[in-house]
């Protein structure tokens, strides 16, 4: 997981400290939640939904928008957790697909209602995005879930080619926030971590 407080200043303009000081900031994060599916045996009356638990955690850290990976949800959808004030937007496989992956963007509901965050673009069960409108600037927020190193080479190459195409279509004047679980390993001695799929 990670986070930060990026500003959404126009990247083509420099030396404008007064302008950037006045711009709103959003706190962003990314989180592989392993699943958003609730256990089949859980009782809806006494067991909190996973989305409710995650929204509560995001609220505790004052997160405005978070990329969520490995949701295991099917299709595309929206779910609002009213108690915590967050909305989950997700992109998954179709009904006939295997729901091993899935991504979501969890955003403060008021940002959606004010039109600061757009409806999502759902590209696949591994990549989705939203637009963030902030004063005179626009930022594309992307979240993704990359294949592991032991995935088929075609699957890996196809994922990164699709991500590249999405990024290349974003106008140069727009900002980009790229979040995700890239299943990466650090270093060359990968056989020391045989149980890690990265």
Automatic annotation (TrEMBL):
Residues 29-188 form the Endonuclease/exonuclease/phosphatase domain. Coiled coil: none annotated. One of its GO terms (biological process) is DNA repair. GO terms for molecular function: double-stranded DNA 3'-5' DNA exonuclease activity. Residues 1-23 are annotated as: Disordered. Residues 12-23 have a biased composition (Low complexity). This is Craniofacial development protein 2.
């Amino acid at each position: 997981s990670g986070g930060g407080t990026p500003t959404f200043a126009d990247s083509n303009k420099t030396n404008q400290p007064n302008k950037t000081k006045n711009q709103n900031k959003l706190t962003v994060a990314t989180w592989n939640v392993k699943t958003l599916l609730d256990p089949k045996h859980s009782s809806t009356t006494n067991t909190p939904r996973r989305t409710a638990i995650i929204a509560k955690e995001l609220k505790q850290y004052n997160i405005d928008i978070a990329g969520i990976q490995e949701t295991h949800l099917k299709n595309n959808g929206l779910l609002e957790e009213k108690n915590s004030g967050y909305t989950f937007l997700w992109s998954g496989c179709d009904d006939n697909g295997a729901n091993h992956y899935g991504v979501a963007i969890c955003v403060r509901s008021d940002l959606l209602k004010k039109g600061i965050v757009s409806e999502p673009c759902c590209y696949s069960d591994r990549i989705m995005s939203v637009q963030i409108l902030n004063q005179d600037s626009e930022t594309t927020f992307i979240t993704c879930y990359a294949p592991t190193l032991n995935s088929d080479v075609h699957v890996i190459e196809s994922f990164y080619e699709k991500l590249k195409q999405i990024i290349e279509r974003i106008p140069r004047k727009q900002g980009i926030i790229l979040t995700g679980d890239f299943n990466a390993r650090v270093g060359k001695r990968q056989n020391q971590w045989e149980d890690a799929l990265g």
